[in-house]
UniProtKB/TrEMBL annotation, chain A:
<dbReference type="InterPro" id="IPR003741">
    <property type="entry name" value="LUD_dom"/>
</dbReference>
<protein>
    <submittedName>
        <fullName>Lactate utilization protein B/C</fullName>
    </submittedName>
</protein>
<feature type="domain" description="LUD">
    <location>
        <begin position="54"/>
        <end position="192"/>
    </location>
</feature>
<dbReference type="InterPro" id="IPR037171">
    <property type="entry name" value="NagB/RpiA_transferase-like"/>
</dbReference>
<dbReference type="InterPro" id="IPR024185">
    <property type="entry name" value="FTHF_cligase-like_sf"/>
</dbReference>
<dbReference type="Pfam" id="PF02589">
    <property type="entry name" value="LUD_dom"/>
</dbReference>
From TrEMBL, chain B:
<dbReference type="GO" id="GO:0006089">
    <property type="term" value="P:lactate metabolic process"/>
</dbReference>
<dbReference type="InterPro" id="IPR003741">
    <property type="entry name" value="LUD_dom"/>
</dbReference>
<dbReference type="InterPro" id="IPR017896">
    <property type="entry name" value="4Fe4S_Fe-S-bd"/>
</dbReference>
<keyword id="KW-0004">4Fe-4S</keyword>
<keyword id="KW-0408">Iron</keyword>
<keyword id="KW-0249">Electron transport</keyword>
<protein>
    <submittedName>
        <fullName>Lactate utilization protein</fullName>
    </submittedName>
</protein>
<dbReference type="InterPro" id="IPR009051">
    <property type="entry name" value="Helical_ferredxn"/>
</dbReference>
<dbReference type="InterPro" id="IPR004452">
    <property type="entry name" value="LutB/LldF"/>
</dbReference>
């Protein structure tokens, strides 16, 4: 069997064991600076930030931007277009979603990415198949870099998790940047400000 | 097959000088974006060093990491397969599809499947494969291989792409607007995603500690394929492992900044367990990697994270095009990996370089690329494959002399070569040395030059 052949070839060919390096850690900038950097990155990568005071404010955005005939969906209970998910829906039924909104675990300032796991997606395909994407980010959950991000993820268990940074994009045609490749055409970050 | 293909193929590419200049400038522009992104992070060098050490550790303990990964992945409900070579890999994929009675598959970018020529194999066995990365779809329609590992159709003009879309996807003749063409592809591929029951993806990183794997895309095509399909097959070279999940932080910070200058790809998806009702498979592929692991001088090439930075910066790649390397992976790293698989067939590639060292300087995992190219030359000469070496070494100098701006750059590089790698110039194989006057060695050191030119 190839497994045994491969493993024995590796065992005889691999060099002497070397040590893993120390984990990297950097000083955390002030919270305000982290938020500012995050907003700046979102704009840079083609997203938009809408600051909100309460989760329900997302309803106002949705009614202002989408008509009655358009299909909106969210697993966030506080929202008017909340949908309950059983977890075994046929993913194909989400083909015509115009706008979907999700609650993220945290966001990363250095690259504008948000971290979200399957249990907050309703269905795995949803954040990708929807035409437009909304992500709820709590301001105090923004970390400055990816090292902190993985500290937060730690040993969190999930079936599927993803960092999403900006709308889907491609520059495959002569390096011209086009937003809206196969995933969402746009991303709105609903930034829930800290209570004063 | 003759192994002096690189000069012949690059001659074809060089027939259209305007196009060569455009190709050259485009890649240099991407290289400049990479520099900007790298300089934006004060700990960049520390990150590179850390990534390099993690990868060294992976190679030194690959046996155990693979076993650990397999065990964890299986616990997560993923089926793990082992393939010693390309043929076995292809057969495994085919049998998985046949087992489900599937004859259509959608595939996201995977250089490994290019290396294994999976598409041709599946098609000859009655399976229809559609590549879903836009660049890959374009070269697939053109019946060409990708010319770059990150930017598969970087050699194509938008007018040519417009023509392909006109012929295959029914757009109006003469349309070449990237926005319109991308929208056309979006609609066409959505239909594909929605109708395919099987999806194949590549793997950027696989975590031994947790048995999960990470796939990075900007387009979202890997996710669209995988989350809609009944069966998800992920194919990876055995060197893609990393020990712990937290190490992803280092690699995700480096990968896209090195590749395109973006801070991170749009999607960095962590697949750990199959979706309810879905099958998930991983194919672990050796195909020469365990042999390369045993070649002390070349094993470092297995640290590669396929960012493409070494290609974008390479003066030879930029002016000869990816297809001139006649190998799935082009550019400096391709020229190290290919001779491991077939030294005779790829004897020309280590000579398709000026040994300027720019690749080594940009590599995020600190592979000593130009040193390895130099070492391959020695091996190849010793093994007697020199006829190709001669021709290629001369040809490399030919491109660099063919345009005045290139000459300026190459002249400086040449001086460095003269000082630091005398084998390449002071050797009977190098016809350039024989026939032309050598430039005087300059006062300015390479590192000074590099620093100054790098800070544009
Ligand atoms: S060799 Fe280094 S620079 Fe080249 S593709 Fe691999 S990781 Fe990137």
């Amino acid at each position: 069997m190839s497994r045994a052949t491969i493993l024995s070839a590796i065992l005889s060919n691999q060099p002497q064991t070397t040590q893993l390096p120390e984990d990297l850690q950097f000083d955390c900038p002030a919270k305000a600076a982290v938020t500012e950097k995050f907003i700046q990155m979102i704009n840079l990568i083609g997203g938009r930030v809408v600051e909100i005071q309460r989760i329900e404010d997302i309803n106002l955005y949705a009614t202002a931007h989408y008509g009655a005939g358009e299909r909106l969906i969210t697993p966030i209970e506080e929202l008017d277009f909340y949908t309950q998910f059983a977890g075994d829906e046929d993913p194909h039924q989400f083909e015509n979603i115009a706008f979907a909104v999700f609650k993220t675990h945290f966001a990363v300032a250095e690259n504008g990415a948000v971290w979200i796991t399957e249990d907050r997606m309703g269905a795995r395909v949803l954040p990708f198949i929807c035409q437009h994407l909304g992500m709820l980010v709590f301001e105090d959950s923004i970390v400055s870099n990816m090292h902190e991000a993985y500290q937060l993820i730690g040993s969190q268990d999930y079936g599927f998790g993803t960092f999403i940074a900006g709308p889907s994009k491609t520059a495959d045609i002569e390096q011209s940047l086009v937003l809206g490749a196969h995933g969402a055409r746009s991303i709105i970050i609903f930034l829930l400000k800290k209570e004063l | 097959m003759s192994s002096i293909k690189h000069p012949e193929l690059s001659d074809i590419f060089n027939k259209d000088e305007e196009r060569v200049n455009w190709h050259d400038d485009t890649l240099w522009w991407i290289r400049a974006k990479r520099d900007k992104a790298a300089h934006g992070i004060s700990e960049w060098e520390l990150l590179r060093e850390t990534a390099s050490q993690i990868k060294n550790n992976v190679l030194s303990n690959l046996h155990n990491y693979l076993i650990e990964f397999e065990e964890k992945a299986q616990k997560n409900g993923i089926k793990v397969h082992w393939a010693a070579n390309a043929e076995e890999h292809n057969k495994i994929v085919l049998s998985l599809l046949q087992g489900k009675g599937i004859n259509q598959m959608v595939k996201s970018k995977s250089m490994l499947t290019e290396e294994c020529h999976l598409n041709e194999y599946l098609e000859s066995n009655g399976i229809d494969v559609i590549d879903s990365d836009l660049g890959e779809r374009i070269v697939q329609l053109a019946k060409e291989p990708p010319s770059h590992i990150v930017l598969p159709c970087i050699h194509k003009k938008k007018e040519e792409i417009g023509q392909l879309f006109h012929e295959h996807l029914g757009t109006e003749a003469g349309i070449s607007d990237p926005q319109v063409l991308t929208e056309t592809a979006r609609i066409h591929l959505r239909k594909t995603f929605l109708t395919r029951r099987s999806a194949l993806t590549g793997v950027n990183f696989a975590v031994a500690e947790t048995g999960e794997f990470v796939v990075c895309t900007n387009e979202g095509n890997a996710d669209m394929g995988a989350h809609l399909a009944d069966i998800h097959i992920a194919c990876m070279g055995i060197e893609k492992l990393i020990p712990k999940k937290k190490h992803l932080s280092v690699f995700l910070r480096l990968l896209t900044r090195s590749a395109t200058g973006q801070p991170i790809t749009t999607y960095s998806s962590h697949f750990k367990k199959p979706r309810k009702g879905q099958e998930m498979h991983i194919v672990l592929v050796d195909n020469g990697r365990s042999v390369q692991l045993g070649r002390e001088d070349f094993r470092n090439s297995l640290k590669c994270i396929r960012c493409g930075a070494c290609m974008n910066t390479c003066p030879v790649y930029r002016r000869s095009g990816g297809h001139s390397y006649h190998n799935a992976i082009a550019g400096p790293i391709g020229a190290i990996l290919a001779p491991n698989l077939d030294m005779k067939e790829y004897a020309d590639l280590p000579f398709a370089s000026t040994l300027c060292g720019s690749c080594t300087n940009v590599c995020p995992v600190k592979i000593d690329i130009h040193d390895q190219l130099y070492k391959w030359r020695q091996v190849i000469v010793k093994e007697g494959y020199t006829s190709s070496a001669k021709t290629v070494a001369m040809k490399v100098m030919d491109f660099t002399l063919s345009s005045p701006t290139r000459f300026k750059l190459a002249g400086k590089i040449g001086r460095w070569t003269l000082k630091h790698a005398p084998f390449t110039v002071n050797n009977r194989l190098n016809l350039w040395f024989k026939n032309r006057e050598m430039p005087e060695a300059p006062e300015e050191s390479f590192s000074e030059w590099y620093k100054r030119n790098n800070s544009i």
